[in-house]
Design goal:
single chain, about 220 residues, mainly alpha
Length: about 220
């Protein structure tokens, strides 16, 4: 019964996230820049920028970069005894990276220009930092939820990881390399993907264990 309730929750999250993603995609298709993109520009670029804030935002955006996430995966393989979870984290990041690259290639939305504080060369929609951070740190949230028994520590870590995802998304707007619609779309499509990935973990685990047994024999 509990598994069925959890599956229903995941399905609801997938459906709602896909609806939001498609609505944002529709806006991007019909409008070069949406009204909420302009709102985010006014808030985070016109009214929020300073030298100290730029340094903070560059540090935050680094936590969603490929270099940092690859380093984090390396640490997971070194420090976590359960290598299956490290393998899942790696597989998760590889899949979402390829998925993001495919979406960027299909949609081919140019990045914002004229107010960027860092340089990025590929397409804008959906945000790669948003997608990969949501998938990677979202998977860490899943591990924390499953493994940590102390409720205070559990929900503190979950809140901090979720806040980090949001801050990484905001940092991309602040630094002028993404529109709000890019980061929202990246968050929602990645959240839908992550729910599917988590649902497939039992099947992946069976295959992983079977391969492990074959290698031993």
């Amino acid at each position: 019964m509990k598994n069925k309730i959890n599956d229903n929750k995941k399905l609801i999250i997938i459906i709602v996230s896909m609806i939001f993603f498609l609505l944002i995609l529709k806006d991007v298709y019909y409008y070069e820049v949406t009204s909420y993109d302009n709102w985010a520009y006014d808030v985070f670029v016109d009214n929020f920028r300073s030298n100290n804030m730029t340094l903070i935002m560059k540090s935050i955006t680094f936590l969603g970069s490929g270099i940092f996430i690859v380093f984090s995966l390396f640490l997971m393989f070194l420090l976590i005894k359960d290598k299956f979870e490290s393998f899942l984290a790696l597989l998760n990041v590889i899949i979402v990276f390829l998925f993001n690259s495919l979406l960027k290639f299909i949609i081919q939305r140019p990045r914002p220009s004229g107010f960027n504080l860092i340089n990025e060369s590929n397409y804008s929609f959906p945000s790669g930092h948003s997608m990969i951070s949501t998938a990677f740190y979202g998977f860490l949230i899943y591990i924390v939820y499953k493994k940590i028994k102390n409720k205070r520590i559990k929900y503190l870590l979950i809140s901090l990881l979720f806040l980090l995802i949001i801050l990484i998304c905001i940092s991309r707007i602040y630094l002028g390399v993404h529109y709000l619609s890019d980061t929202l779309a990246g968050f929602f499509i990645s959240l839908a993907y992550l729910m599917i990935f988590i649902s497939l973990i039992p099947k992946i685990k069976r295959r992983y264990l079977n391969e492990k047994e074959k290698n031993k024999s």
